[in-house]
Write a structure and sequence with these properties.
Layout: E1 2-6, H1 21-32, E2 39-41, E3 44-51, E4 54-61, H2 68-79, E5 86-92, E6 100-104, H3 112-121, E7 126-131, H4 141-145, H5 151-166, H6 168-172, H7 176-184
Parallel strand pairs: 1-4, 1-5, 5-7
Antiparallel strand pairs: 2-3, 3-4, 6-7
Helix pairs in contact: 1-5, 2-3, 5-7
Amino acid sequence: MLLFVGLGNPTPDSENNRHNVGFKIIDAINKQFSLSKQKPKFKGLLTTGSIDGEKVYAIKPLTFMNNSGICIRELLEYFKFDARDVIVFHDDLDVEFGKIKAKFGGSSAGHNGIASIDKFIGKDYSRVRIGIGKPKTPIKVEEYVLQNFDEEELSSINKISQNITESIGDLVKKKLDLFSSTVNNK
């Protein structure tokens, strides 16, 4: 079993924020693989299904970004998941816009959603970092990540979501480097 987690904030005005790119990826996975209808469970919106023969759960925590770990821990405890079977999709300022970097473990690098997950389940899980780039003008990081993507960026994010779903078999097999390379070269 695998657990896909998309990080974001659950308010309607947050839908197209840079910080909500994880939610967008989960939505694309749900649609592409016809996962079950989203149900409010474990303080999140949960879906389930199968991808490449692997049982998959996908969740969008409703606990807000900074408390994402609460939702993930509840789900892991209930289903007896190992943290190593968790794959988190999240925005990353330190990755060039539109690029993907998948890795196992590591530090939060100041990302509050990742720091919350680290606090509640440890650091032994995989992360798919979706590059949102750094602001082009002087602005606080907190303000930048809560800004909406512009139309051109949103179009790119939709393409990235498609590339991720097309290459998800490598992610399911935990071939993180191959997954990153494939998605970035599309």
